[in-house]
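Job type: complex structure
Entries:
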Amino acid sequence: MPITAFVVFVISSAIILLVFGVVARSTNAHRDVNYARANRLRLLFFVSLGAILLIFLALTLPDLPYPVEASAPERIVLATGKQYAWSLTEGTSPTLDNWDTAFSPTINVPTGAVVEFRVTTLDVNHGFSLYGPDRHLKAQTQAMPGYVNRLRVVFDQPGTYTVLCLEFCGMAHHRMRGVVEVR
Amino acid sequence: MATVASTITAPGADVHRTPLIRVTLVWVLTALVLFPVLAILGLLMRAQQGGYLQSTPPEVFYAIMTLHGLGMVGLWFVAGMAVISVLLANYVKPTTAVSWIAYGATLAGVVLLLAATLIGRLGVGWYFLYPLPFHSGGTWPPWATASLFAALAIMGVGWTVWSADLLFAIARRYRLSHALGWHYLSGATTPDVPPIIIISTVSFIGVLAGLVAAVVILVLVALEQFGSGFTNDALLIKNLTFYFGHMVVNITMYFGVAMVYEVLPAYTGRPWKTNTLVVLAWNLVLFLVMFAYLHHLYMDFAQPRWLQVTGQLSSYLISVPAAVVTIFSTLVLIYGSTMRWRLPSVMLFLGVMGWAIGGVAAVIDSTVAVNTRFHNTLWVPAHFHTYFVMGVMLMILGTVFHLVTDLSKVPERSALTKTIVGTVGLGGYGFLLMFYLAGVASVPRRYAVYPAEVAVGTTFAKVSLIFIAVLLVGALVYIWETGRRCLKAFSS
């Protein structure tokens, strides 16, 4: 998807550059503007832009990442953030009092299973992100104090997935990590 | 009213503007000093991300990041306000003393921020997401957090008074319904209200609405810190924070656009009059800008789903008036005109183009399904640096050059104009491309050091240093040329 988004961006930018270039060159020779024609062109632009945006809305809104209640996940992983570590556990999550003994930076999940990460934090906001073996971002959600965000992921490919923090959380933000082993 | 106003000596000029011009020149000179300093901080950050300056501790990187972000957002907001106020003086009478009060408040805030970040090593990012300022992990002392909030409070008061004064100045001449152009919607064409009045009115209402959110944040945080047992709702504070931050950044953009409406006609020789479309567009913007901020919270899954959909819908819709009315009209204004291509007109033209390109990148990122892959990667600074550096910054600096050249009567040198445009264009888009490519490669933003999984970010940062250096050359030539005109205008 990032590549598709980039291609859309490059094509759009090229069109903008072309149009601005044509308009800049047009000032080499003075001509009066036909405002009736300009307004027709504006209407066409409005309709085209509106159509493009509607198509993008229709194509992308069904892909909302938020879990629906209709189906139950096959595995539930409790992901808890704390400056500057991720704990990935099943059953119970660590607290501030037992963090050192109860936290686990690694968890194993099966390939192809629907895994629900229940993401929260014990201190500040963090960003729970899953980077695949290909080093690209697969999925993410925020970890907020007092809230549990549920992120569902199906790991199609086995391998080591790294959890990084994607919401700036302080001095060692870039070192905050966890590991999901998909077997 | 002059059909092609926009110069500081336009018909209708009044003696009251002279002291206002002086305080505006002080604002401009201050901005010209702070801008390269803050830009160099950005260069240092990319250098550290590129694997240089390895001995610099990460907490210094994050303190510099905080200063760079807060500084740039604040700098272009106040620069926009200052320039808009002097352009508005073609039509209304802003209070010079209020501009000085805002200047004093801003300076006091800057001193507090410098102390918090450079001495206290406060590293919270420009939007200081609650409750991070209170969880330093031993990195910064409590006084640095207090200093941050004191700075925000002082600057907030100064900017509120400033915005209110400019809004009152408009209200003294135009009824609110006229200032928002509503009479055009019923077919009336009198009173004739120039676009800058409508855009400014929308902007100042937006500023005040944003500052209300900032006050609520400060009160809630104070209640938690000094109250007994009161705990804030993190999602509520996050909504308020992004509502405020998004509003301030967008309003700065609108200031730049208002300058395009006001100044560009002086170079095309064609007037830019208010019509029904302009009124519809800017009233729609005033409504939609209240909701567009929601796209910052897509990854907060606890946010109600209907708000997430509203975020995408309003972010898409707000691009329509910008593209169909302002950008399209800019092109019609220029097409086939006897355009005088001077530094101001080139910068305004390129600024609109940068706004359009950055806008496309922003709309892409405001798609929830895409945001899951781009949120808090370097795609985010890519798009906001596009419409800031290559958009609003060019619009404001172009207008500043227009004003100081007019005041100082120092003629423009075409060789230097070409140097500025060439270096800023090449350096600007080159450094932005490195951000975009890194975003596509999933490189996170706000990392002092890249771990192995995203080590490719180091290469993009290294290459970007070359382009930032080129950009800085252009910026310094501009600052030299504008600074000497500014000083001459000030002493005359």
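Summary: Chain B has 17 helices and no strands. Residues 124 and 468 of chain B are 24 Å apart (CA to CA).
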